[in-house]
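User: Run a structure prediction on this.
Assistant: Running it now.
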Amino acid sequence: MKAKSAGSLSSRIWRARMAYLFLLPGVVYLLIFRYIPISGLTLAFRSFNARMGIWHSPWVGLANFQRLFVTPRALSSIINTLEISLCRLIFEFPVPILVAIAINEMRGVRVKKIYQTVITFPHFLSWVIVATILQDFFGTYGVANYILKSLGLETVNFLTKPATFRTFLYFTANWKEAGWSSIIFIASLAGINSELYEAASIDGAGRLRRIWHVTLPGLRATIITMLIMKIGQSMNAGFEQIFSLRNPVVLNSVDIIDTYVYDITFGATPNYGFSTAVGLFKSVVNCVLLVVANATTRALFGQGLFGER
């Protein structure tokens, strides 16, 4: 019986050999660049010595992880990361949904395409360019301060005030990424049966009621999936953006784990074992948050990453 099963399995593989051959480059890529490097995580438990290499460097156990929780700047970066990620969930996650609904409610296919193209374009700008634009507008000698000075008001450097700097983080992230992130919601809206809107209109529902009772329920699965994935990336608070915009004055309020690891790796005496430990800690926390968020949404809404309960 086992021989027959093996024979049938091998024959099925042979019949689908072209499909497997097509998948082979992707599998090889994953093995070389995703799975084999996992063995390098042992560096998190070692005191790395370049001459001795990863495998012969002395084993230090959990010492690198203990350092993470006793170093003041490391603890501060963890708190900042969680705070910024939570604010991103509140101030950034709903924006692409609203953008998608607004575009969906527009009349005329051409108008929709024009607006979608315009709001998607900033995604293709690098954060370095965005940081330069912000500096030109809101820096000490920027346009905003020039206007304030011409009105006889006191100038303000918005980018060196911790209270306003985080506001700029969320504002610029929405300006740059909301249009791009809305694409998946727009695609989901295209799958909603138009007869549901017609039935709602016949029943006397206005535009807002149609959005509430037809559009949002139609987006429910997509919203939950994207929310779970967003929560699962909470320890990634936006390195490129913060690294491009930060300055020494606001460092304490926006120093996240990624910028901290960058600084201790390239800005001081490198400690690759500690850097690897921090990265592993991030990944574990992200994984735990992902599992918890998925279980919570399945319990509350009957919907998770892998479909309905």
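The longest helix spans residues 272-301.
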